[in-house]
Write a structure and sequence with these properties.
alpha/beta; globular; 246 residues
Length: 246
C-alpha cells in the first residue's frame, strides 16, 4: 500500500501538463496537497480543477522559474498558508528548436535560454524554497534530469540515444546533475534529500510526443524520490530501474 502523504505539501514546477501534471496527480492521490506551478496561471487553474475532480487537494500558483518575482511570491504564499514545504519537484524544463543542429552550430543565445530554465531556474527556485523545506521533518528535492545528461552515456557510441547530441539540453542536464550532488553534500546532515530523476523517453510536447513511454511511467522515478523514507538515498541519479551512471 502506498504511503499516506496527508499533511505533506508538494510544489511541482511546470505542472500544468505532461510529466509535471502526472507527478502532481500521483502525489495528490496519496493525500499530499499539491501546488501546481505554472507560468500561465489560467493553465495552472485548469490543471488544478481537473485534479480536484478526483478529490485531490490541488492549488495553482503562478510560477515562472526565470522570473524571481514569481518565485519569491510563491515562497511567501507557501509560508503564509502552510508554514513549510515537504516536497519540491523541479520539473520545468525546455528544449528549444535552435538546439536541433550540429553542436558547433548552436547559437550562444540557445545555450543561454536553455540554461536560464534548466539550470539557473532550478537553482533559483530551490534556493528560495530551502528555508521552507528545512521546516519539514522530511524535506525532499527532486530534480527532473534526463539520461541525456549522463556523460557516461553520451560517451558511449552504442548507447540507445547516442545520436541525440543536443549541446544545450544535454549539457544543461549534466549541470543539473552536478548541482544535485553538490547541494546534497551540503544538506547531508539534515533530513532533506536531494536527487535527480530520469523519466526516460516519455511522450511529451518537448519531443513532439515521439517518446515511447507514458507520462505515468515517466513520473515513476520522481514520485519514488519525492517520497523516500528517512534511510533513502541522497545525491543520486536514478531512473525507475535504479542508479544511472553520471
Amino acid at each position: 500500500m502506498s504511503e499516506d502523504l496527508k499533511g505533506r505539501v508538494a510544489l511541482i514546477t511546470g505542472a500544468n501538463k505532461g510529466i509535471g501534471y502526472e507527478i502532481a496527480r500521483q502525489l495528490g492521490s496519496r493525500g499530499a496537497t499539491v501546488l501546481i506551478g505554472s507560468r500561465d496561471i489560467g493553465r495552472g487553474e485548469d490543471a488544478a480543477n481537473k485534479l480536484r475532480v478526483d478529490n485531490i487537494d490541488a492549488r495553482a500558483v503562478q510560477l515562472d522559474v526565470t522570473d524571481q518575482k514569481t518565485i519569491d511570491s510563491t515562497g511567501q504564499k507557501i509560508e503564509r498558508e502552510f508554514e513549510k514545504l515537504d516536497i519540491l519537484v523541479n520539473n520545468a524544463g525546455i528544449l528549444i528548436d535552435g538546439d536541433r543542429v550540429p553542436p558547433s552550430q548552436v547559437k550562444i543565445e540557445t545555450l543561454r535560454t536553455t540554461y536560464e530554465t534548466n539550470v539557473f531556474g532550478v537553482f533559483a527556485v530551490t534556493k528560495a524554497m530551502l528555508p521552507l523545506l528545512k521546516k519539514s521533518s522530511a524535506g525532499r528535492i527532486v530534480n527532473l534530469s534526463s539520461g541525456l545528461g549522463s556523460i557516461t552515456k553520451n560517451s558511449d557510441p552504442n548507447d540507445e540515444f547516442a545520436s541525440f547530441k543536443l549541446l544545450a539540453y544535454n549539457s544543461s542536464k549534466t549541470a543539473l546533475n552536478a548541482i544535485t550532488v553538490i547541494l546534497a553534500a551540503e544538506l547531508k546532515d539534515t533530513p532533506i534529500k536531494v536527487n535527480a530523476a530520469d523519466p526516460g523517453f516519455t511522450a511529451t510536447d518537448i519531443n513532439q510526443y515521439q517518446g515511447y513511454r507514458t507520462v505515468e511511467q515517466g513520473a515513476t522515478a520522481a514520485v519514488r524520490l519525492a517520497t523516500l523514507p528517512a534511510d533513502g538515498s541522497t545525491g543520486g541519479y536514478f531512473d525507475e530501474n535504479g542508479v544511472l551512471p553520471w
